[in-house]
Amino acid sequence: MSGHPDPVVRCTALLRDAVLRGDEYTAVDVVVDALHDGIDAETVLLEVIGVVQASVGEDWAANRISVAQEHAATAINDRVIGTLALSTPRSPGGRGRITVACVDGEWHALPARLLAEVLRLRGFDVDYLGAQVPSAHLITHLHRTGPDAVALSSSIATRLPTAHATISACQAAGVPVIVGGAAFGPDGRYARLLAADAWAPDARAAAETLAGGLPVPARPHAQPTDDLPHLSDQEFTLVDRNAPGLVAAVVEGLSGRIPEMAHYDDAQLLRTAEDVRHIVDFLAVALYTGDPELFTGFLDWTASVLSARSVPPHVLPPVLDLLGEELRDFPRASDLLAVAAAARDGDPHGAGRPA
């Protein structure tokens, strides 16, 4: 076995160690040294910084690090990207102008930041707008700057309805939209469902697609039901608007079914309400897309996260039951909850409790 590890693997290990220790200065040194050692900037962005950031998220889900550590690591990685950008010669540009933004309500900005820097390295002129960009302000920016395309990023599936409205608004302004991020599915299924002009699984694929150019949208439209006729039943709208009331009803009902809730302190009750809200939000987005897998997949992910935290697995079924009682007059919601309950009944490990 060689005593000289792959330099990219070595840099990744060093950066991961630095960000998990909260050592920003060492993290910056690792990246600068990697550039000096001949690793190209795009590789450092995607195969070092990007890989480390993905591992940080996995560590949080597995309960190996806290939320605070995850946030600190992300902040350091963001500043490291800034250092890399300042340490790399500027591209002459001229390959087109791209606006890169996150969907309104989407705080996970690092994937979009990585894309923006890759595009700059490849000669695009880039307007990077960052996290949580309100659609109205994004459209104003498009009218002012006239980009060739918008690259829209979202990691959380509950932002898909907002993403849909933003895609439609950009297209109505005559600007094509390429989307990416975990929210759109590993195969881009939700990008197609929401009529985006293009989808890319990663930054390199996005850059290659944009290099080929995107045509001006042929069918600007403004109504979600143009793409999703099932929304005419209003179930998504009613569940989404009534989410606070649904959460309150479920939490109140749980107190009568789960004896230990009588001993919950205020913080535990707040966490319970927050987690029930997540369940309601994912139910709503499954109603929006018409895809039950969005809801059942979220419950499976929740089960794995709670299992890593040694949380008892006996509360989620009552949550689904209580939601079913509240939504018994909603046929699609009732069907979704029945599918989810059946999946949980077939899971020998249960799904954990949302608290």
Structural overview:
With 355 residues, the chain is α/β, with parallel strands linked by helices. The chain has three domains: 7-87, Methionine synthase domain (Methyltransferase, Methionine Synthase (B12-binding Domains), Chain A, domain 1); 97-222, Rossmann fold, CATH 3.40.50.280; 230-345, Orthogonal Bundle (Globin-like). Helix content is 58%, strand content 8%. It has 15 helices and five strands. It has helices at residues 7-20, 24-36, 41-61, 67-87, 110-121, 135-145, 160-172, 189-193, 203-212, 235-241, 243-255, 266-289, 292-308, 316-326, 331-345, and strands spanning 97-103, 125-133, 149-153, 177-180, 198-199. The protein starts with 6 loop residues before the first helix and ends in a 10-residue tail after the last helix. Residues 348-355 have low confidence and may be disordered. Residues 95-221 form the B12-binding domain.
CATH topology of the largest domain: Rossmann fold
Instruction: Give the averaged pLDDT, no decimals.
Output: 90
CATH class of the largest domain: Alpha Beta
Count of beta strands:
5
CATH architecture of the largest domain: 3-Layer(aba) Sandwich
What global shape is seen?
flat
**Could you spell the SSE succession in H and E letters?**
HHHHEHEHEHEHEHHHHHHH
Briefly note the structural class of the backbone.
alpha/beta
**Domain module tally:** 3
Fourth CATH level, the homologous superfamily of the largest domain? Cobalamin-binding domain
Fraction in beta strands: 5-15%
Contiguous helical run count: 15
Note the gap between the termini.
Answer: 48 Å
- Poorly predicted regions are 348-355
